[in-house]
Amino acid sequence: MEKEIIKQLETACSGTExxxxxEELEELIRSSIKNGRPLKVKLGLDPTAPxxxxxxxxxxxxxxxxxxxxxxxxxxxxxxxxxxxxPSGRSALRPRLEPEKIDENAKTYMKQAFKILDGKKTEVVxxxxxxxxxxxxxxxxxxxxxxxxxxxxRDDFKKRxxxxxxxxxxxxxxxxxxxxxxxxxxSDIELGGTDQRFNLLVGRELQKEFGQRPQIxxxxxxxxxxxxxxxxxxxxxxxxxxxxxxxxxxxxxxxIPDSIIMxxxxxxxxxxxxxxxxxxxxxxxxxxxxxxxxxxxxxxLVKNLYDDKQAEFARSHFDSVFKEKKVPDDVEEYNIKxxxxxxxKVSIIDLLAGSGLAASNSDAKRLIEQGxxxxxxxxxxxxxxxxxxxxxxxxxxxxGKRFFRRIIF
Length: 409
Description:
- By secondary structure, the protein is an alpha/beta fold.
- It has 17 helices and 13 strands.
- The protein folds into 3 domains: about 1-220, HUPs (Rossmann fold), CATH 3.40.50; about 245-325, Tyrosyl-Transfer RNA Synthetase (Orthogonal Bundle); about 335-409, Roll (Structural Genomics Hypothetical 15.5 Kd Protein In mrcA-pckA Intergenic Region, Chain A).
- Strand 5 (about 190-195), helix 10 (about 195-210) and strand 6 (about 215-220) form a beta-alpha-beta unit.
């Protein structure tokens, strides 16, 4: 029993930013194993956007670890609190979303979340089920348990107050409403990112007010993007989307700096702390080539998001493109008929932007100037290059090492 307690405690704390309070967590795990009662582990998600990337999955992976240890995963879908919008890190009131848009985002979000979680073992609770029935007197009772001074302890509120930036009373309700979810389900543990620390602690306080044992608050660190510097973000282009093709995910993981390999192992895989330590020792002390650890990591992430077959395909695709310098067999086709209909000619800028290899004309120019564009075996270095459309039929245009389009005319 003691070995199992230590194992679960190490797994629960592995890769975390903070555990409040670790001694209480050990007591909970001990009690859970002794009495055969799974712990209720809560994760709240606000469907304010439809798509997620690996940075969003850090907390999902931690929740999956608790599932694998036999505990009850409870996913709170903030379809009601999303109408308020969590102001975490915001310098102004969030724009409100319509209920229809929230529902649409929630469906897409859930589908992606279940690439990480075991859907059959996940209890999904919508916040409107518990919050919508509350009467005004109930809400007033909840708000009476917290002071304005307590709310202003939250970092983003404190900064806005000091800077004379308006704070809507409605925004103060968000952490209270989220905390009420913890009371409603009698949460044992709540997970969140570092920006959720205040909200998780409010949940602890409210549970005490209702005579419940306060939940353990576990916060997870922010995941660095593929550049190894900034937070993973779509706007910065350093992200890996959970719905990207297996070969794209594999290739992007292989491009990350060696310095963040172990962070990705800790935050994005369900390997045990012991297994991760062995990989780290191999690199730092035994002189193992980091590329092998990176290949294993890439395979694990594709397997987690897809399956073994797709992981093997992604691995073979990577070897074919990068090691053997081959053009993949399944290259997406791009018909240039429309952009060449008048003159019978097409510019390299139009080719890149029209095929989706470049986000815009300016992005296309930047790629050419960086030497990242080839047609066949010829590198394109002049942004003013123009081709006869008929001569491009069947040719392959390549951006960097991973992105291809077969031109059709």
